[in-house]
Amino acid sequence: MRGTSARGFERETGRRGLPATFRVAIIVVLCLGFVFSGGFLVFATHVGRLETPSDPGSADAIIVLTGGFARLDAAVQLLQEGRGQRLLISGVNPVARPLDIQRATGANEDLFACCVDIDRDALDTIGNAAESAKWLEQNAFRSAIVVTNNYHMPRSLLEMSHALQNARLTPYPVVTNRLDGGQWLASRNALRVLFTEYTKYLAALARTTVMPSRSGDVPAVIVEAGAGNGPVER
């Protein structure tokens, strides 16, 4: 009797299958996983194809987000070339002295003294964007070259576009390690950096979608290097 009952229960369970809500949940999880993985592939491929422009054109100002001397060196070089009137170094460690930064980059002392501003308040990319917006408004600048690493550029531009008003942004990605051609697939460190940055980008995208932008009807515009990077007309 027990054997017959067990077989009957198995046949009944087999006919009914998994609960409908459980099946739907599995499908949703699989779809979300597919979208997340596909998005990461697109993100990594995009970052891998970013190159440092040979001619970024010119803008009212230059903004560099701290995170490595390669970024600072690139930004100071742009300032020395006259690509912008002033340079904002955003997110500087409070203990770092301007003289230390000037010497580390090899910048001209007079140029550094006259045309470089240092932001020590920004603690993250959101802060970088907020402080950059204040600085641009205070100086009546309406176009800027944004300098940061290639993997950090998508999130930086997203936050900048959300915080800035009536500005034109030219990305200047600094490439320290080549990631084009799919090299990131063979590098555990590159995969880790890209995956971390991708999850942060998704979080920033969700937050900026929900939160209202300061830009209103005149949002920041992102242009390619050399694509007429002049002041934004009102």
Give a brief rundown of this model.
The protein is α/β, with parallel strands linked by helices and 234 residues long. 51% of the residues lie in helices and 13% in strands. The protein has one domain (49-222): Rossmann fold.
Structure description:
With 234 residues, this protein is an alpha/beta fold. It has a single domain, classed as Rossmann fold. The protein is built from eight helices and six strands; from the N terminus they run ααβαβααβαβαβαβ. It has a six-stranded parallel beta sheet, sandwiched between helices. The C terminus is likely disordered.
- The pLDDT mean sits at 84
Q: Say how many strands there are.
A: 6
- Element-by-element helix/strand order: HHEHEHHEHEHEHE
Which strand-content bin applies to the residues? Answer: 5-15%
Global Rg: 24 Å
Q: Tell me, briefly, the overall form.
A: elongated
CATH architecture: 3-Layer(aba) Sandwich
Number of domains: 1
Structural class: alpha/beta
| Number of H/I helices | 8
Largest beta sheet: strand ordering = 3-2-1-4-5-6
* Beginning-to-end CA distance, first to last residue: 87 Å
Name of the CATH class? Alpha Beta
Biggest sheet: strands, sense, closure?
Answer: 6 strands, parallel
CATH topology: Rossmann fold
Helix content: 40-55%
Contiguous runs where pLDDT drops below 50 for at least 5 residues = 9-15, 230-234
